[in-house]
Amino acid sequence: MSDQNPVFIPGPTNIPDRLRAAMQVQTRDHRAPDFVETFAPVLENTKRVFGTRTGKVITFPTSGTGGWEAAICNTLSPGDTVLVARYGMFSHRWIDLCQRHGLDVQIIECPWGSGAPADKFEAALTADKARDIKAVLVTHNETATGVKSDIPAVRAAMDAANHPAMMFVDCVSSLASMEFRMDDWGVDIAVSGSQKGFMLATGMAILGVSPKALAAMETAELPRTFFDFRDMMAANATGGFPYTPPLQLIYGMRESLKMLFEEGLENVYARHFRLAEGVRRAVDAWGLRLVAERPELYSDTVSAIYVPDGFDSNALTDQAFNAYGVSFGIGLGEMNGKAFRIGHLGSLTDVMVLSGLATIEMAMADLDYPIELGSGVAAAQEYYRGHRAALIKTAA
Questions:
Q1: Which of the residues 68, 77, 208, 256 has an alpha carbon 20 to 30 A from that of 2?
Q2: Alpha-carbon gap, residue 31 to 67, rounded angstroms
Q3: CATH number for the domain harbouring residue 309
Q4: Going by C-beta distance under 8 Å and a sequence separation of 6 or more, which residues neighbour residue 312?
Q5: Parallel, antiparallel, or unpaired for β 141-142 and 81-86?
Q6: Do 165 and 40 form a contact (C-beta atoms < 8 A)?
Q7: Could you read off the pLDDT of 307-340 as tens digits, one per residue?
Q8: pLDDT for res 395
């Protein structure tokens, strides 16, 4: 019966039955005239989630990592310089990908638990008198540490340095869960995926691409075939794909957008904040500490939590799974063995989150953690009850 339990990993996330049904379709002809009626609105409506009016939405049948690769190989040339801060596993992996493509990666090392260092970006860009830096790469929501970075502050730093570099943002674990304003924040490429805020299976990278980034592909010399923006956009213009599309995911994406818009994007963001704040209240009640260094860095989609000295976070997540059939996120990279993660994004409610908190509490009690059983659940309950009471009072 454990397959009925929700997962509390930061992705892939729980898939609502409504979306499972939408993806359960028989094979159809993606070159038939009626496919454009399905696919074109998906591309157009996804622009609302990115917060762009001027950009293009481009998808590929791959994960977010493929989206990273598409971003750089369509806009950059071998030997180009990119500026990246490393403050978690996913910023680290983006750095590795760039290095493997022969880019000159200028790295700003930051403590894990911190966010994108706008001040250091500004200093590096100001010092780049020859304007060699072609792109600044930023992870909006660092899934390994539960840190949300300030993208507008990075854009302000780039503007203060009067630097023409493009800004690429990994928003895989934030888009459709936390506010994202691509145009207003001056983002040139935003990379996301189907398996997190969109509540679908893994298998589709979803990119928002600005006119500036599209212009850059005319001079970019990194090789690309499968990930060529030009091929994809040319096929998309008539409602098609340059090769076989992930048809089931496209049908799922159409339904996912309906769900998000029915709830209202602002309400989606408010729900994610509420769920996250309940988790944070529980962590405080347990006497534990978040990896994120400051409240302004707290993610609304995933919380990374240090275990006490002398305990192994991997043993804790194993206990939760083996004893209770519930998955939580393990610690990645520098957090391995030191921290576990609670994913609280996508198809989740207050009640579902409470079940996850109760489960991890039981696992901690089983392993003799210095916590009071029920303390975290009670703290989250009080917060959620108070929120509901405030809503009822406002409605009255």
A1: 256
A2: 24
A3: 3.90.1150.10
A4: 337
A5: unpaired
A6: no
A7: 999 999 999 999 999 999 999 999 999 999 999 9
A8: 53
Q: How far is Cα 59 from Cα 209, in angstroms, rounded to an integer? A: 10
How far is 21 from 208, CA to CA, in rounded Å? 27
Measured between alpha carbons, how far is 234 from 223 in angstroms, rounded to an integer?
18
Residues 384 and 246 in one domain: no
237 & 282 share domain: no
Task: Give yes or no for residue 392 having a pLDDT over 80.
Answer: no
| Higher-confidence position of 313 and 237 | 313
Q: How far is Cα 92 from Cα 112, in angstroms, rounded to an integer?
A: 11
Rounded to 10 degrees, the C-alpha dihedral 206/210/213/217 comes to 70
Q: State the CATH number of the domain containing residue 251.
A: 3.40.640.10
Domain holding 330, by residue range, is: 2-11+263-395
Handedness of CA 204, 260, 19, 145 (dihedral sign): positive
Which H or E run includes 332?
none
The set of residues, in sequence order, having a beta carbon less than 8 Å from that of 324 and lying 6+ positions away, is: 2, 5, 359, 362, 363
Q: Return the structure tokens found at 348.
A: 């989740």
What is the dihedral angle through the alpha carbons of 346, 352, 358, 364, rounded to the nearest 10 degrees? -20
Non-local CB neighbours of 202 within 8 Å, separated by 6+ positions = 12, 63, 193, 194, 195
Residues 183 and 60 in one domain: yes
Domain check: are 84 and 220 in the same one? yes
CA-to-CA distance for 109 and 92, rounded, in angstroms?
Answer: 10
Q: Which residues of 115-132 are buried (b: 16+ CB within 10 A; e: fewer)?
A: bbbbeebbebbeebeeee
For the beta sheet containing 302-306, the strands, ordered from the edge strand earlier in sequence to the opposite edge, are 289-290, 302-306, 339-343
Q: Residue 328 corresponds to which amino acid? A: F
The encoded tokens of residue 264 equal: 């209202």
